[in-house]
Amino acid sequence: MELVNKWLERPFEREEYNELVKNLETPNPHLEVSECALSLGLDDLFQISSIKLNEAESLVLELITMRNEGNTDKMFENIRKALELVREKNSRDLVLEGRLRMELGLIKIQTKSEEDPEIDFEWALKRLSSVSENSRLHGLSIINKAAYHEHVDELLMALHHYGEIPLNGKFPLEIVGFSRIGAARILVQMDNITDACRHLYNAHNLFKQSENYELSWHSGFQFLTIGAPYVDISAERMNVQIVNAKPREVGDDKPEVKIHPSDLKDIALNLKDSNEIFQNVDDSIKDFVNKIIENTELFN
Description:
This protein has 17 helices and no strands. It is mainly α and 300 residues long. It has a domain at 202-300. 69% of the residues lie in helices and 0% in strands. Helix 11 packs antiparallel against helix 12. It has helices at 2-9, 14-20, 29-40, 43-50, 55-69, 72-87, 94-110, 117-131, 136-151, 155-162, 173-189, 193-209, 213-227, 238-244, 261-273, 275-278, 283-295.
């Protein structure tokens, strides 16, 4: 989030916060800032933003701490109270209601509830697609619906939902990146390595572009791990494979897996250039990345 990034560069006073928060294109800006500040341990920013929350938003914010503590009973109670508030005439919040139904589905899975979480995920998806289209929350509702189908081993349905988030659409970059990681995970299970590598390559660059360097590193390393056994100098470069990619029909032959060494080299160099992350991974991972760089040294 741009406001949080500005705070990390230079903390500011309440007055400047009040001006910056006006530029956030989100229906619950103070909640979004408070969640980021709490997760990153930015206590001063949290104090400035959290005081602006209404009662329902405060109940939602408390879910982070409760989830970390494993206090599921209290989470159910907070969601119930918040849902009552956002449905009242004077405190109606259509977007937050969608978010809460999504949270309810997640906690039902976490607690192995007998109640069907799919109802909540479907409700949240329909609501958020209508009142907050292409937003971060809308994207998360799609991803959670896909993850639910993956959880119950409905892989084709999960893959369909991940595909509802287009590569070049209007969703936030990190949402597109998450959808590509999810799709790649399923495609590996289905032994479709070509498409899995393409999705991981995209995810790496999307997260890098959005300055989410840890997830960029994670997806890039997955690309190397999965793609390295299929190195082939005759392969099309990944950017060409991405442009030429098209949906596959049931029964289509799996494409032959070919990864150009230059693509392996580019990703490996990106990982090594992320020095702070690279220095903290296991030596075996460092050796793997260095070996790819060494073996592809002659390729541009």
